[in-house]
Amino acid sequence: MDPNDPTYNDLIASFGLIGLIIGLAIYLAVLALMLWIGYLIVKAAVRNGLREHTMWLESRRGPLR
Fold first, then answer.
1. How far apart are alpha carbons 4 and 20 in whole angstroms?
2. HEC profile for 3-48?
3. What's CA 20's distance to the chain center, in Å?
4. Alpha carbons 15 and 11: distance in angstroms, whole number
5. Tens of pLDDT, residues 8-60
């Protein structure tokens, strides 16, 4: 193709737009994955902390109910 042909420039621009959309989608997917993994880590930490605290309370006072 001739680089001076207007359809060639449109083709290059459309590839750039498609690349931008794909890059944005990948960026958002990675961001969502990082947030989800962080949520799971915090959830596990809180669950373990509550379990340890409950066991500590039961060791001092006996069963809670």
1. 24
2. CCCHHHHHHHHHHHHHHHHHHHHHHHHHHHHHHHHHHHHHHHHHHH
3. 19
4. 6
5. 777 778 888 898 999 999 999 999 999 999 999 999 999 999 999 999 988 88
